[in-house]
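Because discrete structure vocabularies remain unfamiliar, we reproduce here a specimen of the format, pairing a chain with its fold in token form:
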Amino acid sequence: MLRVRVFNKRLLSGLLLPLILSVAVPAGAKPELKIEASPKELSLGQTLNLNLTLTQEANEKGAMLDTPQLSLPPLPGLEILGQQTSSSMISNGSRMRMTSQAQYRLRPLKNGEIVIPSLTFQYSENGRNQELVTQPVTIYVKGSSSGSVPWLFGGGMVLLGATAAAFWVWRKKQASAPVSEPSASETQPVLAPVAVKRPVAQASATPIDGFEARLNRGEEPQVLLEEIYDWFRELALKRQWSTGTSATHQEILNTLRYATGLPKARVQVIEDFLRACDQMRFANQDIEPERLRQLLELARQFYNS
């Protein structure tokens, strides 16, 4: 005789309900971290952007994970010139998606191949430590002229030797030639050339004039922009607009507004200057010389006033 076991309905529902709920309400997707460098090929003295982009979705309760700060460690062969962060949140159907980005401005300190190693960032999920790891990024720096030094040295030695040989042959001919009486024209006194005084070009009246002159000579706008920004940092420290070289733009503006007594119009010019610096420093494109001239004009307004 066959025996049929009948399960209790309540027991069966208690076993299946958690499974059904776990399928119907999925947990939040694992956050994604991407790294991108642009450009990956550049010349020594130029700068590049390094972007760290973190994307995550809210869990079933609408909460976001406790994600890490996208801070860079020291990178061998690279100097960190500046950082800019941003975040945005959009609706992805029934859930929210948040994107956080940290953009760094880097300057190579040597030529050749530079590898940005894998970066590890830790975060917490349900009380457990998790890690996000980036892929290594390789950039190529060119433009150093040191490789031409041996060739120039060798060519210079050859030229020096040929010149010495020619001089020795000329001296030998002069020694063997008969001595003749000088002619009347040869005995005339030779007048010494009169030195003509030329007007000496005046030095640049301000550092801004110097930057403008270099821009007009065709120097790289990207390099000039970083030097102009460093000059402002030193000027702000000298005039007590900031408490240190690591002060943020907002801290500088707060000092200008509440501690220096500068006119509002002048503070506005400095704010426009800093905003224009950020737009050009963190834009992933070449800088037009005309935009740099506009920046120098802003600098002239607050420097001379």
